[in-house]
Amino acid sequence: MYGNIWAWSGTFRKTDKDNGIDKHQIPMELKVLCDDALYRIESKIYSPEETAIRFKHRIVSIHCFSSGNGRNSRLMADIIIEKLFNKELFT
User: Fold this and answer.
1) Going residue by residue through the chain (91 aa), what tens digit of pLDDT does each one get?
2) Using DSSP, how many helices (H) and how many strands (E) does the chain show?
3) Which of 6, 67, 78, 90 has its CA 20 to 30 A from that of 57?
4) Where are the domains of the chain?
5) Which candidate, 27, 28, 54, places its Cα nearest to that of 40?
């Protein structure tokens, strides 16, 4: 996804933005997101599609990276729907 495009790709942002949480909270919020997602998957609270989209929405709102958050969140939703639920990718 990132290739050799940006030297900083894949590292959390080091500055605060108008959108997203405080830069220091990123690791903890990702942990909370993953724990919540795991609980929802195991408990079957939402449909597979809603589970994937809720994860996508939340990770993009955390805004982990300086750039590429939307692309990353869409990729994560596709991975969840395809690999965890064995469903077709979103169109």
Assistant:
1) 556 666 667 789 999 988 899 999 999 999 999 999 999 999 999 999 999 999 999 999 999 998 889 999 999 999 999 999 999 998 7
2) 3, 0
3) 6
4) 34-84
5) 54
